[in-house]
Amino acid sequence: MAINFTGEKQKILKYLIIILIILVVVALFVFSKSFFVKELAAPSQRVFQPREISINFNVLKDPFLKELQVFEEISYPEEMEIGRENPFLLY
Q1: How far apart are CA 18 and CA 12, in angstroms?
Q2: Per-residue pLDDT averaged across 26-39, rounded?
Q3: How far apart are CA 29 and CA 21, in angstroms?
């Protein structure tokens, strides 16, 4: 009874070939990205130019705004308890 290693060697060889093909595909992908992709040139001028801000204060002199009234301050009774000591505790 002889031991036959050819079947096991063929399985190992198939796995190694598959791994080699995967490595070659990954290497081609990495190199194609580095060689064939063109880098964009940096712009020589400023891309963003801020606009000048001007505020029209004449709007505040409108008679409609002068007719507006300020709300009265709402005061709470001193006896009233607002909120809980620890709001994160369950009821």
Answers
A1: 10
A2: 80
A3: 12
